[in-house]
Specification:
With about 130 residues, the chain is mainly alpha-helical. The protein is about 60% helix and about 10% strand. The longest helix is centred in the first third of the chain and has 41 residues, at about 1-40.
C-alpha cells in the first residue's frame, strides 16, 4: 500500500511540475509578444529604408481601420495589420482617416501614413505655403 501511495505522490508531483513549466513557457512567450507590440507601437519603423516604393492608396468612404490595415498590408505598405491597428488607436490621428486617394511610400512610418490620411499634412502645407 505504501508503494502505491509513493507512486501516486511521485506522479502527482510530476504532473504539477509539468504544469508549472508549461505555464512559465506560455507567460514567457506572451510577455515577449506583448513587449514587442508595445515597443513597436511607439517606436515605429518603415517597411523599407531609403526612398522606398511609392504606392497610390485609396481610402473609401466609411472604411474602418481594419479595412485600411488589410489594404495597406495587401499592397506592402505595412507588415503587421494588428500592430497598425494598435498604432492607429494610440496615435493622435485615431478615427481621423479621410476618404481619398493618397501617395504613400514603403519608406513612411505608419504614423506618417496616418498623418497623410487624416489630411493634416496637406492643411499644414497650405498654411505654410499660402
Amino acid at each position: 500500500m505504501n508503494v502505491k501511495k509513493f507512486g501516486l505522490g511521485v506522479l502527482d508531483a510530476a504532473v504539477k511540475i509539468a504544469f508549472i513549466i508549461i505555464v512559465v513557457m506560455l507567460i514567457s512567450k506572451y510577455a515577449k509578444l506583448a513587449y514587442n507590440y508595445g515597443y513597436h507601437i511607439f517606436n515605429q519603423s518603415a517597411v523599407s529604408s531609403g526612398t522606398g516604393r511609392t504606392v497610390t492608396f485609396t481610402v473609401g468612404s466609411g472604411d474602418s481601420v481594419e479595412t485600411i490595415a488589410d489594404n495597406l498590408a495587401g499592397v506592402g505598405l505595412i507588415t503587421d495589420k494588428n500592430l497598425f491597428k494598435l498604432q492607429e488607436r494610440f496615435s493622435e490621428y485615431h478615427g481621423k482617416e479621410q476618404a481619398g486617394t493618397y501617395e504613400l511610400s514603403t519608406a513612411m512610418t505608419p504614423e506618417e501614413m496616418l498623418e497623410i490620411m487624416a489630411g493634416t499634412e496637406a492643411e499644414s502645407e497650405e498654411t505654410d505655403g499660402g
